Amino acid sequence: MTDRPDLPLRIAVPELGFLLCDRALRILPARRWTLAGTLEPAQRPVVAKLFLAGRQARRHFERERRGLEGLHRRGMAAPDVLYAGTLDELGGWLILTAWLPGASADTLGEAALPAVLRAVASHHAAGIEQRDAHLANFLVRSGIAWTLDGAGIRISGHPLPARRALRNLAAWLAQFPPAVDARLNEWCAVYGAIAGAIPRQELQCLLDRARRQREARHIDKALRSCTAFDARRTLRRLQVLDRRDDAPDLRAWLLAPDAPFENLQADWLKRGNSASVVRADLDGRLRVIKRYNLKNLAHRLRRLWRPSRAWHSWRNAQRLALWGLPTPRPVALLEHRFGWLRGRAWYVCEWVAGESLAQVLPAADPPRRDLLLDRLCGLLADLARLRLTHGDLKATNLLVDQDNQLMLLDLDALRRHRRRVTFERALARDLARLRANWADDAELLAALDAALTAAGLAR
After folding, report:
1. Is the same domain home to 177 and 244?
2. 424 Cβ partners below 8 Å, 6+ apart?
């Protein structure tokens, strides 16, 4: 048994024929494979969940089977189970379900929220709690959210208690970007029409907590080996890379991280004492490599005990990516270490073509200026909903791409605030730093102040 399937994969299914799997939907190495394929000779599209041989495989198989059966018994929309049993050919167990055409809720985003809320409300009213709150567990088809995962289902004989239902609803809403909070009254009404009225303020508090918990789990995951990331820690180094970018040139760079900076033809973006930045072609894709320098012995000693700025940049880029907030996609993190002591560090992200807001905004015509200010305030409002502040919000740290979308750069000072008073002070410092970019342009500064006030970010 290998960690990953060798596709296409042909498997004999008792009494049904053969299963030909040609696409992986989700892979948990050596644990569970979720594959798309066709059941022959009927030529029926199916989804196969293979629970691989091991101590926990049988238990996970039984949980999935019982969960799907429970959904059907209570009239919930769930795919039909075509086969559930042992799989002697590969070892382990197989659950085969009908393929449902539609779109995953995590790709539809906010457009899927009403259907997901109706499904969650129906679950709660029927005494069903889906503990694995993940949008990929729902498929939206003709306005109906079908529940795909039975493993996380817990079923009782009566509707969920109000507090428990509210916590589970908050866990589902936390899967969506914070912008959905602006319509929270509407979402409460959608849910309440099926499962009963809910207190909005209490839901908001639980939602904020669920987001913090989800964010902490995601950042922790981004620093260890899993399906999405490859992390390696030794006495002398820490390296993490996004598996989507794993390729020979990137692996070679990890062994010689200073090579792009020593190249006589290096494409320099910044030469600084504290940080050096170059653009490099790694495996045919342009990347930005940022090296955080140690300026002298005193600086080196101060940084020994503290997480590197590259570490903070990686964590914060993952934080923003989780919530759909725009920043160049993080690719790799590298730290030189000696045990727990930190040395030099590098951060790699994708290259995004564009110009800084400092260049674009003063030269923009009125319609484009209004569009950019509106998007700037929208970005700042999304950060504010999460109590995030940038820490160095100068206009050169805001990139305007070819579609007039704004992206946040230089994330090592970005932080989340638990207390409102500290957040409001940090936000005021961010806005003051932003306004200072155009202190000599009274007209532009007035337009910025008006936009900030209209967005509720300034008084």
Report:
1. no
2. none
Average pLDDT, the chain: 90
pTM: 0.85
**Can you give the residue range of the structural domain that contains 125?**
103-221
Work out the angle between the directed axes of helices 162-173 and 113-125 (0-180°, nearest 10).
160
Task: For residue 52, give every residue at least 6 positions away whose Cβ sits within 8 Å of its Cβ, in sequence order, or none.
Answer: 1, 30, 31, 32, 33, 90, 91, 92
**Dist. CA 144–CA 123, nearest whole Å:** 13
What are 330's strand-pairing partners?
A: 349
Does the residue 189 lie in any domain? yes
The last residue of a domain, from among 98, 124, 145: 98
Q: Strand pairing of 144-147 and 138-141?
A: antiparallel
At residue 28, the pLDDT reads 79
Which residues of the chain are modeled with pLDDT < 70? 1-3, 89-90, 296-304, 459
Q: Are both 58 and 109 inside the same structural domain?
A: no
Q: Report the domain count for the chain.
A: 4
* Residue 439 vs residues 145, 393, 427: alpha-carbon distances, Å: 51, 14, 18
Task: Looking at the structure, tell me whether residues 314 and 246 fall in a common domain.
Answer: yes
Identify the H or E element spanning 104: strand 103-104
